[in-house]
Structures are given as structure tokens and as C-alpha cells.
Amino acid sequence: MTGVEDRPGLGIGLRILSGVLFTGMLVCIKAVSDAVPVGQSVFFRSLFALLPIMVFLMVRREFPGGLATRRPLGHALRSGLGAAAMFASFAAVALLPVAEATLLAQLTPVFMVVGGVLLLGERFSFYRAGAVALALAGMAVLVLPGLDPRSGGGQMTGYLLGALSALLTAGALLTVRRISRTETAASIAFYFILVSALAGLATLPWGWATLTPAEFGLLVLSGLFGGAAHIAMTLALRYAEASRLAPFEYIALVWPVLADWLLFGLPVSSGFVLALPLMLSGVGLAALEGRRFKRPLQR
């Protein structure tokens, strides 16, 4: 049994919905980024993401029974890496257009390919080499204009933070791959969000902003969007294989481009347009590699 119900149409629809919701979350974070510190944003995003996720777990009758764990240290490592990735991601989106920050997040599966070789002893194949080469080429095309002193130092910092977030996310997901043999999806999601909220709360002594009603509302929405996006992605993977969903990463990048243009008045950069096919081709090769190893395991 693979754990996937063969309803690809529903899975694809949920994957597209998750892209819209993730974009909504980042738009909310970017809208308050000038006034609200990153740690405060992480706290509110995580706190209010717990609401839809707990309701979802209750509907599935996985709360609180599904939170039992036999690997607390594994959860601590996964949650710590995930929380650090969230800090880096929110700091990046404050400095970059939403579309570019989202594109950098697509490096995650490519970093997972490298991590699988270095940490898990997996074979370095043609697919892996091609995925890494294409992703690095796309990264170079996107980042090189930021090296121009006239473009401002914040842009380059944003690129580095975005890449760091993707690297930390890859580490978190590789940890998930190890602990999911004994741990439920409910416990993995719950403890990650809980640790992220506590990490955000720990920044309170460094000073938080006094929120206006509009800022508070946007932070609440960021949490609700983030929690709902996680649920939609989880269900998408339940109804369709990841390799079948991979092509819809292109559609997931349409929403950030529209958000930048319509909400923030930011045009699409030439670097983004050139980097997009290169980086997503790398993601596609990484997905083919995963599919290639999945078939023998199923047999």
C-alpha cells in the first residue's frame, strides 16, 4: 500500500490551492515587514496556523492521540531546522519580491538530492547531477544582477537568506524522511509549528512592534493561510503522487508574480524570467529521481 488514493484531479486542485494559500501567507508577511520584526511575524504566523491544523487533526481523529512520539530528539531537530528556515524565509521576503523569494524556495528539492548523497549514502546519478547543475545555473542568473553595487546591498542579502531557507528546509525534510517511519504526520506538523511559535516568542526581549489593527489582522491571516496551505499540500500528496504534482510548480509561481504586480507594483525582473526555467527544470529532474527510486520500493 502506497498511502496514495488515486484521485489525481483532486490532488492537482489541492496543490494549486496550496500555492495560492502560501502566496497569501507571504503577501501578508511582506505587507507588515517594514513595521514588524521577523521574530514577531514568526510567532503570530505559527500561533494562528495551529488553529486550522488542530481542527483538521480533530476531524481525522488524530488529536491528541496522533501527537504521541517515540523520537523526541528527531522532532527537536526537524522542528529546529524548520523554525530557522521560517526566520530566513520571512527575512528574505522582506527584502525581495514575493516571486523571487518563492523561486528560491524551489531549491529545496535540489538541496535534498545533495543531502541524500552526502548524509544518507544515496548514489550520485545523472538525474542528481543534472538537477544540481540546472539549479546552480538558475541561481547564478538570478543572483548575478544583485552583485551590481547600484542595485543595493539588501537584494543580495535577500538572495542569501532565501537560499539559506531552502537549505534549512531541505535538512528539515530529510529529517522527516527518517522519523516518519515511526512518527505520524500529525505529530511532525504539530511540533514544528509549536517550536516555531516558541522560537518567535523568544525574540520578545529584543523588542516587538505595537501592532495596528490592520497589522494584527494581516498576521492572523498569515497564520491561517499557512496552516490551511499545509493541510492542502498534505491532502494533495494523499490523492496524487508527488511526481504527478511536480509540473504544477509552474502554476504555483504564477500567484507570486501576480501579487508583486497587482499589490506591490513590482515588475517581473529579467533575472527571474531567465532563472525560472532553469531552476524548475532542476526541480523536475529531482522529481524524476525520486520517482525512479520509488518504483523498485513499491515492487
Automatic annotation (TrEMBL):
The EamA domain sits at 10-143, 157-286
The principal location of this protein is membrane
For this UniProt record, the keywords arranged alphabetically read as follows: Membrane, Transmembrane, Transmembrane helix
> Looking at the record's lineage, which domain of life comes first?
Bacteria
Q: Per the UniProt record, which residue ranges are transmembrane? A: 12-32, 38-59, 80-97, 103-120, 127-147, 159-176, 188-208, 214-236, 248-266, 272-290
Q: Does the keyword Membrane apply?
A: yes
State where the protein is found. Membrane
**What Pfam families does the record point to?**
EamA (PF00892)
The answer to whether UniProt assigns keyword Iron to this entry is: no
InterPro entries in the record, alphabetically?
EamA_dom, EmrE-like
GO cellular component assignments: membrane
User: Topology in the membrane?
Assistant: Multi-pass membrane protein
Q: What is this protein called?
A: DMT family transporter
What is the source species?
Vreelandella nanhaiensis
